[in-house]
């Protein structure tokens, strides 16, 4: 097994993934052995156990796979409720959960969306862990 | 190899209580040992299922509850797996007895959920989700399961009315369970008209927040005989983790639960058709539908018929009865204790102590206890009074 040289610049770590995301680039892991897409990238493939994981820029476009509306938020999100959350199937494979910048009534399974990122707001920084403070927050915009 | 059996069970009151976690445990323990020697004269190890220190700012629950049971200098540990912690504790106890390490092990679980209020419970439960993507998107337990429910309703013929019927069925069962947090019948309209929590799920699709503790004594069959205790054999135990993030899983084929159930069946030498009743992890109504399929009771896409009588269900269903206790929905769901409350129900059913909610002629039960969202981790147990095959 390798990976002894993983550091925070490596996109198979969370800091590496979010650094790229802050620049607008969504990186995904792709298993060199079975093709499984891993979002975010990580050192090993859950599909087959391989550690040959390539990291590639991925399409930020996708379709809503499932969605709901949060009426009873965690304390840190109280000011935002109700808000829409979806699982999105990305155009070139893999699924990612995120907020959707649309009312629940205006979303449907199959709806086209695009992943965008913003710098954390003051409120988001307040509930962030030290190492998360500068991580961007992603949200899906309807297309 | 020694045969592990459940030799005694006990539980505290469930719901909003005035007792802290350790005292809830003392109540459960007192019931379990009512007709037994003191724990110090029997118990060789302790496992405690406990979800979160954020309710009581207390970890070290293994040490604490061992001490409160009058035990010192025994192996004791807290087991964490969110809502599957209870069945994980049971599984550790079963393995210790089966491999000959101990003759008597206490598996217990406790949660003092009301200590932090509803928002405290929401926050504590959200720690079970992937921090990097899921938690930072403001997802909650009900909204995670709503994503499963939305997809299930999209892919099958199930309707919100069917999900409501599952809640109605479980409340009807709980009405005959003196241990239940909500021992009262409800109707479909009550469910459908209840407050939206995360569509398609409404308040009455959700298991409640509540306090509770349970204690289960696992022993060798020989020791249970010596103690002159009614005994239920733990014939199979399986566990399986799945992805932590819901988005990366198959959201309608609950693979982790399927593997946990199949592993438990295989160890027990049975299949799904041998199961007379099951206690499944209906944290939300849709879970019962999904788990009926994962356990092999129902063909894919028909699990939502769990509330119907066997004659009404689709071809390919077994005649299993689901959650005679009232399930998490109405019996109650004090997270770390839940898996052990499932075992308690099976013990009472299989030893003739289930009163007027008894499943007639039952001799074999499946327990499915999940932690995280759905099958992030699942533990399955087969409990039986049938002779070993």
Description:
- The complex is a heterodimer of chains A (143) and B (389).
- Chain A is mainly β and 143 residues long.
- Chain A has two domains: 58 residues, Single Sheet (Rubrerythrin, domain 2), CATH 2.20.28; 84 residues, OB fold (Dihydrolipoamide Acetyltransferase, E2P) (Beta Barrel).
- Chain A is built from two helices and eight strands, in the order H-E-E-E-E-E-E-E-H-E.
- In chain A, the strands form two sheets. Chain A has a five-stranded mixed β-barrel.
- The longest helix of chain A has 9 residues.
- The N and C termini of chain A lie far apart (43 Å).
- Chain B has 389 residues and is an alpha/beta fold.
- Chain B has a domain of 132 residues: Peroxisomal Thiolase, Chain A, domain 1 (3-Layer(aba) Sandwich).
- Chain B is built from twelve helices and twelve strands.
- Chain B has a ten-stranded mixed sheet with strand order 3-2-4-7-1-8-12-11-9-10, sandwiched between helices.
- In chain B, a hairpin with a 2-residue loop joins strand 5 and strand 6.
- In chain B, helix 3 packs across helix 12 and helix 6 packs across helix 10.
- The radius of gyration of chain B is 19 Å and the shape is globular.
- The model of chain B has no long low-confidence stretch (mean pLDDT 97).
- The interface between A and B is large, with 39 and 35 residues.
Number of strands of chain B: 12
Low-confidence stretches of chain A: none
Judging from the principal axes of the Cα atoms, what is the shape of chain A?
globular
Q: In CATH's first tier, which class of the domain at 4-117 and 209-226 in chain B applies? A: Alpha Beta
Sequence of secondary-structure elements of chain B: EHEHEHEHHHHEEEHEHEHEHHEE
Oligomer: heterodimer
């Amino acid at each position: 097994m390798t990976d002894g040289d993983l550091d925070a610049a490596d996109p198979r770590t969370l800091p590496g993934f979010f650094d790229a995301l802050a620049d607008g680039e969504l990186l995904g892991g792709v298993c060199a052995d079975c093709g499984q897409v891993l979002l975010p990238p990580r050192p090993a493939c859950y599909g087959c156990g391989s550690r040959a994981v390539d990291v590639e820029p991925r399409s930020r476009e996708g379709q809503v796979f499932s969605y709901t509306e949060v009426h009873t938020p965690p304390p840190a999100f109280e000011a935002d409720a109700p808000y829409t959350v979806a699982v999105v199937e990305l155009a070139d494979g893999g699924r990612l959960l995120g907020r959707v910048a649309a009312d629940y009534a205006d979303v449907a399974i199959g709806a086209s969306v695009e992943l965008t990122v913003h710098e954390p707001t003051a409120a988001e920084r307040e509930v962030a862990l030290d190492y998360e403070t500068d991580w961007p927050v992603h949200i899906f915009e309807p297309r | 190899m020694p045969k592990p059996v459940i030799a005694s069970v006990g539980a505290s009151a469930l719901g909003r209580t005035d007792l802290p976690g350790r005292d809830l445990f003392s109540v459960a323990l007192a019931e379990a040992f009512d007709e037994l020697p003191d724990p110090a004269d029997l118990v060789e190890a302790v496992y405690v299922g406990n979800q979160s220190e954020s309710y009581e700012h207390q970890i070290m629950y293994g040490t604490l509850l061992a001490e409160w049971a009058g035990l010192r200098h025994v192996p004791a540990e807290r087991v964490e797996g969110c809502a599957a912690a209870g069945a994980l504790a049971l599984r550790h106890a079963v393995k210790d007895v089966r491999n000959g390490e101990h003759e008597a092990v206490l598996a217990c679980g406790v949660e003092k959920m009301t200590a932090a209020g509803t928002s405290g419970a929401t926050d504590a439960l959200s720690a079970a989700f992937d921090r990097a993507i899921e938690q930072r998107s403001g997802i909650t337990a009900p909204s995670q399961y709503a994503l499963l429910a939305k997809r299930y309703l999209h892919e099958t013929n199930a309707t919100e009315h069917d999900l409501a019927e599952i809640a109605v069925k479980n409340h009807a069962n709980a009405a005959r369970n003196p241990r239940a947090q909500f021992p009262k019948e409800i109707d479909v309209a009550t469910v459908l008209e209840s407050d939206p929590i995360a569509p398609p799920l409404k308040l009455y699709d959700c298991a409640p927040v509540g306090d509770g503790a349970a204690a289960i004594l696992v022993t060798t069959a020989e020791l249970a005989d010596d103690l002159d205790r009614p005994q239920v054999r733990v014939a199979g135990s399986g566990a399986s983790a799945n992805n932590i993030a819901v988005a990366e899983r198959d959201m309608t084929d609950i693979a982790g639960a399927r593997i946990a159930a199949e592993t438990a069946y295989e160890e027990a030498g049975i299949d799904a058709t041998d199961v007379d009743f099951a206690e499944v992890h209906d944290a939300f109504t849709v879970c019962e539908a999904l788990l009926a399929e994962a356990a092999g009771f129902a063909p894919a896409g028909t699990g939502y018929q769990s509330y119907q009588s066997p004659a009404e269900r689709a071809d390919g269903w077994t005649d299993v009865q689901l959650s005679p206790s009232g399930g998490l929905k109405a019996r109650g769901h004090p997270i770390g204790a839940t898996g052990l409350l499932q075992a308690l129900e099976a013990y009472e059913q299989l030893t003739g102590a289930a009163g007027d909610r008894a499943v007639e002629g039952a001799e074999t039960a499946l327990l499915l206890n999940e932690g995280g969202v759905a099958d992030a981790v699942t533990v399955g147990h087969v409990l039986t009074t049938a002779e070993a095959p």
